[in-house]
Structures are given as structure tokens and as C-alpha cells.
Specification:
Length: 521
């Protein structure tokens, strides 16, 4: 909370609060230009900055966007007049961009966007009130007062205005300031009625609560858990909008807290819709999803770029679902996780594919951990390493195995390694001592891989190209060439100082040895 701002506020039922907001030089210039337009053309317009800008200023954060609410003009009308003023003072004319209403994207009213002072683009919209009907979250919009506009907003902390004309903060709900000071998430009107009108606001409430580390008020939590509200959330809201809100939470400051709220409020199956028929048919342990997410987020604390962080969190969240599948229309087995990411949340197909790939690679990493600790290969790993042509030295098995896994998963290997630790130490999800052990094991394996120079093994240039392999084998093609390419890569891993000639000699000796074995049978 910004001390210079909120400490000056008086509690009570006053709409207008005396508060000094620290404006940037750019903001001062923009606001003065807008006031000059109103004064020059005698518009009588009250200019208000709406919602998030005011909230962020009072919290001491620098807002990204400025939205101007107008009491007697539409956004486009004001932008046209603003351009007339620009022409009078000899400034460059700016073409207003009209953003049509798009209820599916929560744009219920036409907005005009225009650059002001040849710098920042500003959204302009008229104040409005709204009325909902039972069957839709899309309201009927009409012009309204500032108070009506404040009460139609999702949360009290988002209902504040900054009156540019009078240089003051306006709190028409008479509790937005107080809720901001107390760190409470509250709806301006009855929460159940608010959520039944627009169920998406349930997810928005969770997102803002976890973004600012605020608390959902008891009445809001009760309304969000209501079965009628859940049904409306399923029926009224598109899967794209649900996915967008979930993705905001997962990429935000507190994804664990957000998913904890989703589970606590009984919204897991609403947010993450499952296919109609899956195997196993029932998954009722969604609390474990949050436990896994909590462990991976707080235990490993891997430094990742945004794309990897997103993949890491979704892979952890859906890790308990990794063995579930369903049959599509062609009776093809599809992972339930792929369905949830791609169809339920409508997130990119490449993300769904990557999450499934992480789960598969984590299984191989779990087998690698067994080899790493006991020198005993098992499962698919054992099949890959037991190759009569390779005859790998025992002391190279760890290196070869790690290299093969990394070549498959590439940049996301750290994510797969962290997830695999939970498979290898499943008790680490809720045992603090095991969590410490898990982190130590992760660091040990990561250092092993990086010390051997394998962290970018997928970019290695192969010792032998396909043409050379075909020449040694005296073949013009066929599936055997692909198998030998894999063998050459594993040999290269096992013999980091090996040359091209060394590799060719090994190929010739291996083939000769196998021919002798075959002829003796």
C-alpha cells in the first residue's frame, strides 16, 4: 500500500476522498491536454480515469494502461474533438481506433483508442449502467452515471475513479478504498447475484486476490462455491475465457494460491473440464494436483524464462493425471492432460503437446535416477541401453542415458527433471524432510549433466552423417539407417573424445562381430 496515498484517506461514507496521487510527467501532460480540450470547446465533460489505474496508483504500482470514462460523450465523439484540437495547435492528427463491443472478450461497449500527446494510447468510453438477463452474461448497456458505472464493476477495488477535473479520488461504492487498505476482495453488489449475472467474475476475483495477496471475503467465497454459480460458470462462459483467466493466474505472482482457491471453492472440474469418458473414469484426488504444484514451485524454485515457467507449472499441476487417457472418435488413445490444456482451456496445441512430452520425459528421468543411484537400468531405459552393437562401458551408462533424454526433451530438460523427482520421491509432496532431499537430488543431477557439458547436447553435430553410415553399411537406405544414426549418437555420448575414424572403425567391428555371432547360431 502506498503510504503517501492511503495514509491520507479518511474512513467513512464520503464519495470524494482527499488524496494526492503521484503522477508521472507523461500522465500530467496527457491529463492537461484532455482538460484543455474540454475547456476550449466548452464541453462540460467530467474526465475520470477508471478502475485499474486508480487501484494500482494507490498500491504504489505504476499502471500500464489509462482508461478515460466520459459522462456526456462517447469515446469516439471525444476522440474526434481531440483531433480537432490537435489540428488547431498544429500537432499531428491521430486516427482513432474503434474497438467494437465483443462480449466474449468482456468488451461490452464500443471503445475508442487514440494516442494522446503523440505518446501513450488511451482508451475512451462513456459511463454506463448495465442490466443482465437470466440466460446470458452479456448485459444490456445504456448510458449511466459515475455511481452506476462504479456499482456495475466486478470488485470494489476496481470501482474507483480519479476525477481529473477536480484532482480527487471518487469511491462511489463507499468501500473501495477501505477494502484496498484491508486487502479484501469484495463485490460492489451482492456477490451471488453478481456471479449469477457474470460467472466469469468468480475467476477474476481469484486472480486479483492472488495477484495482490488479498483475501476473498466470506460472503464472496460462499457465493463462489454455490452450485448454481458453478452451473452458470459452465454454461454461460466460453472455454476460451475460462482458459484466459486460468492462464493469467498460472503466469501471475501466486499460481499456487490461485489453484488452492480453485480447489477450495470446488471449482476444479469447472475450470478443468474432463472428457466425457476417461480411463480411469473418475479422478477425485484433485488436492494432489495442488500438492504437486506446491512442491515443484516452492521446493525447486528453478530460474526459468516465461515459456518454460508456464510449461513447468502446468506440467506439475497435471502430473497426477499423466496416466489417464480417453478414446477419441477414431478410438485413438489421447492423454486427458492434452484434452484439458487444448480443449478445456483452449490453450495452444503446442503447449498441450509439450506438457505431455514433459510427463513422458519425466518418466524416463525417473528411470535415470535409479540408474544414477544404483547403476541398475530398468524399463524402457534398459531396452535402449542393451544393444548388442553398442556394448557400452559401464562407466558411461549415466552419461549416455542423460544425453539421450536431453536430446529428446531439449530446452525443457530441467522442467522434466524436477517433475521426475516427484515421481521418484512421491512422499516429497507433503514431507518437508523429503522435500529437502528432493532438492538436493535435483541439484546433484543438474550439476552432473552440466559438468559433462550435456546441457545443449541436442545441438551437437553428429559424428557421422547419413551418407557416411550408408557407405559403411553398403546400403542405399531403409529403416536400419535410422537405427544406426541413434547408435552413432549413443556411441558419441559414450566416447566424447572419439573421432570420425574411431566411430567408423567401431561400426565396422560391430557389424563384423554380429555377423560372426549370427553365423555361429
Amino acid at each position: 500500500m502506498a503510504a503517501d496515498s492511503l495514509e491520507q484517506l479518511q474512513r467513512g461514507a464520503e464519495v470524494v476522498e482527499t488524496v494526492v496521487l503521484e503522477l508521472t510527467e507523461e500522465e500530467e501532460k496527457i491529463f492537461q491536454r484532455l482538460l484543455d480540450v474540454v475547456c476550449h470547446f466548452h464541453l462540460g465533460t467530467t474526465l475520470r480515469v477508471a478502475g485499474g489505474w486508480v487501484r494500482d496508483k494507490l498500491l504504489g504500482e505504476q499502471p500500464a494502461d489509462i482508461d478515460i470514462a466520459l459522462d456526456n460523450k462517447t469515446g469516439l465523439e471525444f476522440c474526434v474533438i481531440l483531433n480537432e484540437y490537435n489540428k488547431l495547435i498544429g500537432e499531428k492528427l491521430e486516427e482513432p481506433q474503434v474497438i467494437q463491443s465483443n462480449p466474449d472478450r468482456s468488451k461490452h461497449l464500443e471503445t475508442a483508442k487514440m494516442s494522446v500527446c503523440s505518446k501513450k494510447e488511451i482508451d475512451f468510453v462513456n459511463l454506463r449502467s448495465e442490466n443482465y438477463v437470466e440466460s446470458s452474461r452479456i448485459p444490456t448497456m445504456k448510458n449511466g452515471t459515475a455511481e452506476q458505472d462504479a456499482y456495475r464493476r466486478d470488485l470494489t477495488i476496481n470501482s474507483l475513479f480519479y476525477n481529473i477535473n477536480d484532482n480527487c479520488v471518487e469511491d462511489f461504492t463507499r468501500r473501495g478504498i477501505d477494502d484496498l487498505k484491508k486487502g479484501l476482495i469484495v463485490t460492489p453488489l451482492d456477490p451471488k447475484a453478481t456471479f449469477l449475472d457474470d460467472p466469469l467474475r468468480v475467476l477474476r476475483a481469484i486472480r486479483f486476490a492472488t495477484r495482490f495477496n488479498f483475501t476473498l471475503c466470506d460472503e464472496l467465497k460462499e457465493a463462489a462455491s454455490d452450485e448454481k454459480v458453478k452451473l452458470k460458470l459452465c454454461c454461460k462462459i466460453s472455454r476460451e475465457r475460462v482458459g484466459e483467466e486460468i492462464n493469467h493466474m498460472m503466469s501471475g505472482r501466486r499460481p499456487v494460491e490461485a489453484m488452492s482457491y480453485i480447489c477450495y471453492l470446488g471449482l476444479f472440474y469447472v475450470a478443468f473440464a474432463f472428457p466425457e469418458k476417461s480411463n480411469p473414469p473418475i479422478f477425485d484426488n484433485y488436492d494432489r494436483c495442488v500438492l504437486v504444484l506446491t512442491s515443484t514451485y516452492f521446493v525447486f524454485q528453478i530460474q526459468l524464462i516465461d515459456e518454460q515457467r508456464q510449461l513447468y507449472l502446468y506440467s506439475a499441476l497435471f502430473f497426477p493425471l499423466r496416466k489417464m487417457f480417453y478414446l477419441d472418435r477414431k478410438s485413438k488413445k489421447i492423454e486427458v492432460t492434452r484434452y484439458i490444456v487444448k480443449e478445456s482451456l483452449k490453450l495452444p496445441a503446442c503447449l498441450a503437446k509439450s506438457v505431455v512430452g514433459i510427463h513422458a520425459a519425466s518418466g524416463k528421468f525417473a528411470e535415470f535416477l535409479l540408474l544414477f543411484e544404483s547403476n541398475v537400468a530398468s524399463g524402457t531405459l534398459k531396452e535402449e541401453l542393451e544393444d548388442v552393437y553398442l556394448d557400452l562401458p559401464t562407466d558411461t551408462l549415466n552419461r549416455v542415458c542423460a544425453g539421450v533424454i536431453l536430446a529428446e526433451i531439449k530446452d525443457f530438460w530441467r522442467v522434466a527433471l524436477a517433475i521426475s523427482i516427484l515421481s521418484y520421491y512421491p512422499e516429497a509432496e507433503n514431507a518437508l524432510s523429503q522435500q529437502d532431499r528432493s532438492k538436493e537430488k535435483y541439484m546433484e543431477v543438474e550439476h552432473f549433466i552440466t559438468d559433462l557439458g550435456l546441457n545443449e547436447v541436442w545441438n551437437w553435430k553428429p559424428l557421422l552423417k547419413g551418407e557416411t553410415i550408408m557407405a559403411v553399411m553398403q546400403r542405399s537406405g531403409g529403416p536400419e539407417i535410422g537405427e544406426w544414426k541413434k547408435r552413432v549418437f549413443r556411441w558419441q555420448l559414450a566416447h566424447p573424445k572419439g573421432t570420425v575414424d574411431d566411430c567408423i572403425d567401431w561400426m565396422k567391428q560391430s557389424q563384423s562381430k554380429c555377423r560372426k555371432l549370427e553365423s555361429s547360431i
